[in-house]
Amino acid sequence: MENIIIKIREELESNIDEKTLNTSQHFFKETIKFYGVKVPVVRKLSEAFFPLIASRPKQEIFELCENLWQSDYIEESFIACNWSYYIREQYEPQDFIVFEKWINQYVTNWASCDTLCNHSFGELIEMFPEKITGLKEFAKSENRWVRRASAVTLIIPARKGKFLGDILEIADSLLLDKDDLVQKGYGWMLKAASEAHQADIFDYVIKYKAIMPRTALRYAIEKMPPHLKSEAMKR
Fold first, then answer.
1. Would 18 be classed as within a structural domain?
2. Residues β-bridged to residue 73
3. I want to staple 46 with a disulfide (CB 3.0 to 4.6 A). Which of 4, 22, 82, 230 is the partner?
């Protein structure tokens, strides 16, 4: 298994793009460890190497993913996220613990958080809706990335019209959060939910607009018609 990781790292080093290397840090407030490889190239590498491990037991694939997470390179985290999503048909309820561990121990930026949560974690919640109770507990965490994960994990299910009651419950928990990246996360979740439940999300925003951080509010109403946006923005 170590040989695969070594080959991936060699490929990443050989695909460094100078512009990406010079600009990647600009998108983050935190100091990010990165090679400087474009995201589409990282995705292609994920796809190219996955057939070499596809037949292995899920647990071995998760171990490879964890090895990549442990490097702290953002590109390696993306490959770990991609690989964990490629085996989604093998997910079981207990895999919640695996993703929870990765968020708690390894996620240090919004891009890794969202890549894991939008796809692998969101898929798991859709497959096993009973695990959403654990996601609600995330919203109470002291870890900003865990709190953001409680919201962004539901982006794709929200677009499908799923989990509206749970989404509003998580929004309640995060409503007064002072972290702007958490505010953006739950605002994004509300925006996604508005695609299928515009009236419900609008009513929620109007109910709490006096106390909802403006960052979250602006995200939540982004896809609404101009007249609703105008009403929501009035003080």
1. yes
2. 33
3. 82
- Tens of pLDDT along the chain (235 residues) come to 669 999 999 999 999 999 999 999 999 999 999 999 999 999 999 999 999 999 999 999 999 999 999 999 999 999 999 999 999 999 999 999 999 999 999 999 999 999 999 999 999 999 999 999 999 999 999 999 999 999 999 999 999 999 999 999 999 999 999 999 999 999 999 999 999 999 999 999 999 999 999 999 999 999 999 999 999 998 7
83 within a domain of the structure (yes/no): yes
Could you give phi then psi for residue 25, rounded to 5 degrees? -65, -25
94: Cα separation from own chain's centroid: 19
- If one counts the domains in the chain, the total is 1
In a domain? residue 170: no
Structure tokens at 207: 């109910």
24: part of which helix (H) or strand (E)? none
Give the domain extent around 10. 1-89
pTM of the entire structure? Answer: 0.94
